[in-house]
């Protein structure tokens, strides 16, 4: 990536929020010659970066496309990704001293430490002379008739030519994401779509969950609406004392929470043997039926023991029942239950446990430069927007790409 540093533009740019998108926006604007200030309410920048990817920071993905995202305007998402894609991400980080390694398409810092990503971003901000003000919550934001912005702090007011809102969403509030950006956007007249937790665990009805808590199983999780399959994801499911977790659950949680906004419950089902063909059980029965076993022994080689107990109870069988005395149809019912295990979801964990949010500022409000159509000079980026990605580095990529585009635009002279 070429670093094009023009003459000083005299543009005074304020970035509200020192997370992933805000830091990239500040770096990009400063490289273009703007005078940049970051206002961050936490005591340090990039707090959320440190907990991404279990501390390894999955910062992007080779399999980048609009299909990896949810939004009311995926064409807009596609245009953003086209301008700043995977190669641009790798090049950007190399330009600030971070080597990226790839594992099955997933991008990580070569050190596999999230702290490395935060460090190189901070060092570049310092190198470029960006003013960093931490422990500095913004109390209000007003655009004057002359086009400048007044940013109100606790005991002072600051004035800027351009403002980039990079406040994040409501997800993971312990990292500082409290939804301030939504408030500022509303006050400035922008439209927001309803915000719900995403990439989060689901809570389900049933007294059996405590008995299977801790079980990990390959499975296919399916979301139903009025008896119709509307979405599914496959991978390792993690069963908890209150419901389901794991990557397939995270991927579907925003869809489920959207449905729950209009209904008290959502029907799910789990296929615990998604890689087996339809004829599997007939072949299995042919080999096993001749043997004298209890039903627990008969099925012992198929599922986790805790799951088996739940399936048997659902089928009306006791573990000690002899297979010889059980009709074939009843044995088939046990297998059928495992392939279509019905679950009623009544909610999800809160924003505290969510990795991102679904919903936010409507993309209809923005130009392709991420500038608010109603408020010239105001740019909105990252999780604040109505865009959320699947697991796999897509949300961080959205932060880098929107930060880069808005930072470049905010530094330009009018």
How is this structure best summarized?
The chain is α+β, with helices and mostly antiparallel strands and 414 residues long.
Sheet with most strands: 6 strands, antiparallel, barrel
Count of DSSP-assigned helices: 12
Quote the average pLDDT.
93
Provide the β-strand percentage band. 15-25%
Please bin the fraction of helical residues: 25-40%
Q: Return the domain count.
A: 2
Strand order, sheet with most strands:
13-16-15-14-17-18
CATH class of the largest domain: Alpha Beta
Radius of gyration: 25 Å
Dominant shape: elongated
Class based on secondary structure composition and strand pairing: alpha+beta
Briefly note the CATH topology name of the largest domain: FAD/NAD(P)-binding domain
- In total, how many beta strands? 21
Termini distance? 25 Å
CATH superfamily of the largest domain: FAD/NAD(P)-binding domain
CATH architecture assignment name of the largest domain: 3-Layer(bba) Sandwich
Low-pLDDT residue intervals, each spanning 5 or more residues = 1-7
Protein described:
By secondary structure, this protein is of the alpha+beta class. It folds into two domains: 12-196 and 358-410, 3-Layer(bba) Sandwich (FAD/NAD(P)-binding domain); 201-348, no CATH class. It contains twelve helices and 21 strands. The chain has helices spanning 20-31, 74-83, 86-95, 114-127, 180-187, 209-212, 247-260, 280-288, 295-298, 305-314, 328-339, 394-410; strands at residues 12-16, 35-39, 60-61, 69-70, 100-103, 106-109, 131-133, 140-143, 149-152, 157-160, 162-165, 192-198, 202-204, 216-225, 228-239, 243-245, 266-271, 341-348, 356-361, 378-380, 388-389. The strands form six sheets. A six-stranded antiparallel barrel has the order 13-16-15-14-17-18. The protein has a five-stranded parallel sheet with strand order 7-2-1-11-20, covered by helices on one side. A three-stranded antiparallel sheet has the order 3-6-5. Strand 1, helix 1 and strand 2 (35-39) form a beta-alpha-beta unit. The protein is elongated. Mean pLDDT is 93; it is low at 1-7.
């Amino acid at each position: 990536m070429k670093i094009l540093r023009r003459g000083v533009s005299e543009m005074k740019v304020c970035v509200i929020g020192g997370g992933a998108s805000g830091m990239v926006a500040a770096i990009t604007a400063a490289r273009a010659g703007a005078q940049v200030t970051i206002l961050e309410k936490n005591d340090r920048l990039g707090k959320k970066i440190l907990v991404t990817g279990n501390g390894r920071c999955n910062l992007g993905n080779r399999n980048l496309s609009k299909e990896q995202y949810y939004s009311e305007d995926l064409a807009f998402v596609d245009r953003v990704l086209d301008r700043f894609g995977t190669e641009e991400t790798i090049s950007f980080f190399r330009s600030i001293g971070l080597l990226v390694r790839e594992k099955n398409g997933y991008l990580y810092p070569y050190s596999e430490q999230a702290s490395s990503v935060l460090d190189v971003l901070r060092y570049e901000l310092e190198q470029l002379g960006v003013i960093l003000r931490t422990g500095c919550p913004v109390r209000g934001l007003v655009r004057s008739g002359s086009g400048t912005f007044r940013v109100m702090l606790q005991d002072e007011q600051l004035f800027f030519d351009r403002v980039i809102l990079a406040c994040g969403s409501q997800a993971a509030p312990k990292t500082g994401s409290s939804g301030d950006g939504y408030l500022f956007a509303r006050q400035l007249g922008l439209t927001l779509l309803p915000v719900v937790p995403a990439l989060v665990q689901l809570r389900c009805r049933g007294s059996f969950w405590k008995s299977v808590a801790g079980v990990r199983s390959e499975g296919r999780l399916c979301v139903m609406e009025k008896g119709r399959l509307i979405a599914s994801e496959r991978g390792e499911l993690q069963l908890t004392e209150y419901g389901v977790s794991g990557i397939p659950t995270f991927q579907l949680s925003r869809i489920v929470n959207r449905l729950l906004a209009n209904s008290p419950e959502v029907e799910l089902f789990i296929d615990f043997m998604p890689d087996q063909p339809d004829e599997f059980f007939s072949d299995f029965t042919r080999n096993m039926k001749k043997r004298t076993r209890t039903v627990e022994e008969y099925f012992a080689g198929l599922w986790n023991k805790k799951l088996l107990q739940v399936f048997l109870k659902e089928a009306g069988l006791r573990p000690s029942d002899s297979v010889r005395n059980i009709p074939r149809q009843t044995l088939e019912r046990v297998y059928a239950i495992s392939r279509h295990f019905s679950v009623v979801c009544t909610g999800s964990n809160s924003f505290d446990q969510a990795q991102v949010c679904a919903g936010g500022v409507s993309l209809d409000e923005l130009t392709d430069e991420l500038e608010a159509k109603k408020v010239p000079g105001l740019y909105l980026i990252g999780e604040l927007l109505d865009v959320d990605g699947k697991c796999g580095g897509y949300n961080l990529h959205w932060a880098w790409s929107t930060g880069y585009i808005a930072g470049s635009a905010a530094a330009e002279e009018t």
